Amino acid sequence: MQTHKSKIIAAVKEHGTPSYIYDGEKLVSNYQRLVNALPDCVDVFYALKVNPNVSLVKLLRSKGACTEVCSITEMEIALKAGSTPQDIVYLGPCKKDYELKRAISLGVFAIVIESETELKRVSRFANEAGVVVDVAIRINPDFSAKGSPWKMGGRPTQFGIDEKHAIANFGTYLNVPNINIKGIHVYNGTNILDAQSVYENSKYILGLYEQISQKYNTTFSMVDVGGGMGIPYFPNQEELDIVEFKNLMTPLFSDFHKKYPDTRIIMESGRFIIGTAGYFAVGVNNIKINHGKTFVVTDGGTNCHSASAGSGRVVKRNFPMENISATDNLEEFEYQVAGPLCSPDDIIGRNIKLKEVKEGDILVINASGAYGSTSSPGLFHSHGFPVEALVYDDQVHLIRHKDTSDDIISRQVVVDFKKEPVLN
Ligand SMILES: Cc1ncc(COP(=O)(O)O)c(C=O)c1O
To answer: Which fold has domain 276-409?
Structure first.
């Protein structure tokens, strides 16, 4: 049985740094922990925005995960990973015409509609294609999920249709030509660590379903309550209590299912499933003292893992980091861990205590599986995105090549000027 440390060491040995390394067994067990905490009537949809690597999605798919996608590329990745269209929901505030047309031709389980104009557009495309399209209406509720650092609903956002307006106008949605309204979708927040808060949020959304059902004297074939289950990053945070979660969610969903047995209940999750299964490894390139502080300069920083540098957060706090090259007997010192960018903000560890760091050591940021490369400025300094490896079943699998200079340069176009610029 390999430990997470031996898995990281094996992957770094083969693929170097900076690198994202995933623990396949942990990924599967996180997914199963969530599935086991929910009754059978709930389907878990893995959100590709969190980490879209095709091999990771394939592994999750092999255990039964469905997929939630927000772009044509995520849609193609989900298919390549083995998802059937009927196990895909497609959403997002800016769906392009060609993306909608692809989703329509595939026949995904539901296109989640974010506005009334989008509903009209989908209706027009469906009419042109001579089909009826399954959609869900995304509602931005008058309810906000407690404990979520980023709120997508319950306040003015670009997502969904306002609750009161949607309820008042649902009857008109039901009559839009070439459209089959399958149900409703709400996604309110992310990284919620309090089971009670996820429960209250889900309960509110099931209540919305009932309200609309009763008002329009109909039932629907889906309700997507989103999710937002989180993971701890900082010392004062505690894991989501999965037993409490199970005890709250089981009766809630089971009772709903008894009442509406033909309604597919969907929960979306990304961070909870993959966050703690991913590690970001960097190599120490240089150590220096500057104005009294010790800087450890590494080969990967904000450009690869901007979340760990605290981007988007007012208060910057350190992700859990360790020096995996250090032996147990070494003393701890305080460091500023920097990445390779010419930006003073490129700090992935501030005043952080680590076992004595030496040049060539490997530092690892834990809890890095979610929103790593996907939310980082990978082209800063043209470094490109790093290599990714999956350690599963005692094997190291390369799952993403690192970007090379050629990869980056070949996307650029050299203009053939009529009059060549004069070189001085
Ligand atoms: C619509 C939607 N679904 C799923 C997710 C994934 O959320 P999480 O990483 O909290 O599981 C998000 C995150 O922003 C989202 O906006």
So the answer is: Lyase, Ornithine Decarboxylase; Chain A, domain 1 (2.40.37)
